[in-house]
Amino acid sequence: MPRQLTTILTRNPAVLEQQIRAIVEKYVRQNLICFFALTSNDSVDWTRYWQLLRSINQSQTVGSLSSSFNGVKTSKGNLSGYLGCSIGLFEPSEAVCFRSTIAGDRQAQVGRWHSFRKDEDADASWPLGKNMSWEDVWNRRGDGADSPSIDLGETPIEQVQSLVYFTDRAYQGLSRSLSQTYPLASKVGLIAPSTLTVTELPATMLYQNNIYSTGAVGLALKNRYKQDISFQNLQPISEPMTVGSSQGNIIHSLNGDANPTQLLLRILESTPGTSAANPASYRFLNERVFVGQVGADGKPFRVVHITSGDPSRGSLAVSSDVAPSADSKVQFFIQNGATANSLEWPGQDSDKTSFKFDFITVPELASSGELINMSDDHSIVLDGTFCAATDVGIVAHRPEDKEECVGLDCPIGTTASLETACS
Question: What is the model's pTM?
Answer without folding.
Answer: 0.86
